[in-house]
Specification:
alpha/beta; Fumarate Reductase Iron-sulfur Protein, Chain B, domain 2; FAD/NAD(P)-binding domain; 3 domains; five-stranded parallel β-sheet; 16 strands; binds flavin-adenine dinucleotide; binds iron/sulfur cluster
């Protein structure tokens, strides 16, 4: 029977059940269980069907949330799937890893007093169910076009663009320097947030739809950017941002101090069944170690929780601001605390100790000052407040900057912004090189999966306009 809507007044918010702490510390599986059909229906029915849905307004994809919640509440799941997938290339991924507390759910009007609708969990449920029931069909263009598009980068921005362009009938080739598709979805974000099967399933779906992948292809290395450009009618650069920000402190070069992404890629590869010497040899393995992670973003949260699952002796997160002023999701901090991570707020590293290998971190306490130009609270050290934490593995997770793309691509004319990201026309996503477009983190700076998907879809629409204008111009000649 169809559920009535507006049930929030008497039906409490219920998030999907979390696995017991001891159980989830022992593996890399997702920590949230899935809604069953009854819970998904009931939770969707809490929506009050707002005339102006703030949830949708604050979703970067402008998802039609109230309508697919209503369809779910009515048990019309296939229609809910059609609607949800019309605006989001990977709804089951966003449902798992969007920071919903800052986006859709954080802006649900029934949040105050009644708690928001569990939008992300329902979104995930709809598409997981669609896959199980065979409703997710390969991309099937109405007709084939002769023009081809090259996409550099198989992360969410590149893949979202690839899907949209293939659906228009283009011949699409995606190049990536890694051996698997997914970008940070496969090698950055750990399985306890996004199980790898979910990403591999989408890889197969894209291939089944006729998208060609050229992997182990470092553009600018063995394969030149000029060659890729010459092979296609348009090129999209969606290479993400990978240059780790560094710490300027004595001893930072000691063995045992490692960049976050090296650590996470190693762990993800090991989980995928690859032979990883750095893990087997112990360099990038937290087992039995006192681990200190420096940083307060999503990457730092993923590192601390990975270290717990690798059976570290202790895991401490050192962050120079406080909990309220950290960039990472508060939901992930709470999960990390539950799993035994110790957070040392308002503390920054002063020096790394040790002779042959790191043995500890000398940190200093900080206090918050006035907001700086970026609007974030400034931080100042408190004289005489130094203390030492024992450490034999230190993970630096201070964020990422763009690599030197014009240098790597041997294309010095390619223009950058002041932040080193690729400069594009915001309406057309085109760089200053004709026919070369860019999307995702390489344009925005380190951001979110949902924004990468949005950019990829918008860039695909702009590429379609560009290619068709060229086709028409040639026909008119
Ligand atoms: P990427 O995902 O980085 O993909 C870029 C691809 O380009 C990669 O596959 C790379 O191999 C390839 N590439 C780069 N250079 C070349 C080259 N020269 N030749 C060929 N290929 C190349 N966001 C969320 O929304 N939720 C989260 O929970 C979350 N957690 C995160 C955790 C971590 C550890 C990190 C690092 C980020 C996290 N993010 C999260 C951010 C999110 O992953 C990114 O914003 C998103 O992946 C950006 O997508 P993209 O397609 O622009 O780039
Ligand atoms: Fe919310 Fe992200 Fe889904 Fe949008 S895509 S509805 S922000 S979970
Ligand atoms: Fe439903 Fe909340 Fe969105 Fe309103 S803001 S339509 S109650 S999910």
């Amino acid at each position: 029977m169809a559920e009535k809507m507006l049930q929030f007044t008497h039906l409490a918010q219920q998030a999907p059940e979390k696995r017991a702490i001891g159980e989830r510390q022992a593996d890399f599986d997702e920590i949230y269980r899935r809604f069953d059909a009854a819970s998904a229906k009931a939770q969707a029915s809490r929506c009050s069907q707002c005339g102006i849905p703030f949830c949708s307004i604050h979703c970067p994809l402008s998802n039609n949330i109230p309508d697919w919640l209503k369809l779910t509440a009515e048990g019309r799941l296939e229609e809910a799937y059609e609607l949800s997938s019309a605006t989001n290339t990977f709804p089951e991924i966003c449902g798992r890893i969007c920071p919903q507390d800052r986006l859709c759910e954080g802006n649900c009007v029934i949040e105050k007093g009644f708690e928001s609708v569990t939008i992300g969990a329902v979104e995930r449920y709809i598409t997981d169910t669609a896959f199980e029931r065979g409703w997710v069909k390969p991309i099937a263009p109405a007709f084939e076009r002769a023009e081809s598009i090259g996409i550099i980068g198989a992360g969410p921005a590149g893949l979202a663009a690839a899907e949209a362009l293939r659906a228009q009938g283009y011949q699409v080739t995606v190049y990536d320097r890694h051996d698997r598709v997914g970008g940070l979805l496969i090698y950055g974000i750990p399985g306890f947030k996004l199980e790898k099967d979910i990403v591999l399933r989408r890889w197969k779906w894209l291939e089944d739809g006729g998208i060609k992948f050229v992997l182990n292809a470092d553009i600018g290395g063995a394969l030149s950017f000029a060659d890729v450009r010459a092979a296609h009618d348009a090129v999209l650069v969606a290479t993400g941002v990978y240059k780790p920000r560094e710490i300027a402190a004595p001893g930072v070069g000691l063995p045992g101090i490692v960049p976050a992404l090296d650590y996470l890629i190693t762990s993800n590869r090991q989980g995928l069944g690859d032979a990883v010497p750095d893990f087997e040899g112990g360099t990038l393995n937290a087992r039995g170690k006192d681990v200190v992670v420096i940083g307060g973003g999503d990457t730092a949260m993923d590192c601390v929780r990975t270290a717990v699952r690798q059976h570290a002796k202790s895991v401490t997160c050192l962050y120079r601001r406080d909990r309220q002023n950290m960039p990472g999701s508060l939901r992930e901090v709470a999960n990390a605390e539950d799993e035994g991570v110790v957070f040392t707020w308002l503390a920054a590293p002063e020096a790394f100790l040790g002779d042959e290998h790191v043995t500890g971190v000398r940190a200093i306490c900080m206090h918050l000052g006035l907001p700086d130009a970026s609007g974030r609270m400034s931080v100042d050290p408190i004289a005489g407040s130094s203390f030492t934490i024992k450490a034999d593995l230190v993970i630096k997770a201070l964020g990422f900057d763009p690599e030197d793309i014009p240098g790597a691509f041997n294309e010095p004319a390619l223009k950058l912004t002041g932040w080193g990201t690729l400069k594009v026309d915001p309406k057309t996503f085109q760089t200053n090189l004709p026919g070369v477009f860019a999307a995702g983190d390489i344009v925005r700076g380190a951001s979110l999966v949902v924004w990468a998907i949005r950019d990829g879809r918008d860039a695909a629409a702009a590429i379609h306009r560009f290619v068709q204008a060229n086709v028409q111009a040639m026909a008119a000649e």
